[in-house]
Structure of UBC core domain-containing protein:
Amino acid sequence: MADSGTPKRPVRQTEKLLSALQALNDNPLPFVRDLQLGFVDGVNELTGILIGPNNSDYAGGHFRFSMRFPPQYPFNPPDFTIVTAICHPNVNSRFGTACLDALWSTYDPHMPLKVLLTELHNLLAEPNYDVPVDNDILEKTREKAREWTQSFAQPSE
């Protein structure tokens, strides 16, 4: 039988992620919903909804996110994307990629998935307006962040 050229799902990585998902199901994070693991474009991808932190410009928002795990994971960290439109100084406006430099400077291959998700949530709780990820035309202000949360990140009934 000829090889179809379709990438094969990395078995060990998938087992590790499934184990981490089971741990999250057993002891869920209150700000994460609807976690699903898929295999998209040759990589494992975890999707879900991140609930905006209370007392933040993103409070009450439901933000769809994606974590894509490169073949080198856990030795290389996953890529985070916030799929829901968001006005955030540390998220690329065009592509939704989240800049988690503080996390990546301390990243360790043994870092639990729970910590990675918590850091993404912390990014919403404490945006760094002094170091924006891009200098796009959109003015990223706290007021604009609240407006976008109301416009784009409301839970569907």
The beta strands are 32-40, 43-51, 62-69, 79-82. The mean pLDDT is 86. The longest helix spans residues 11-26.
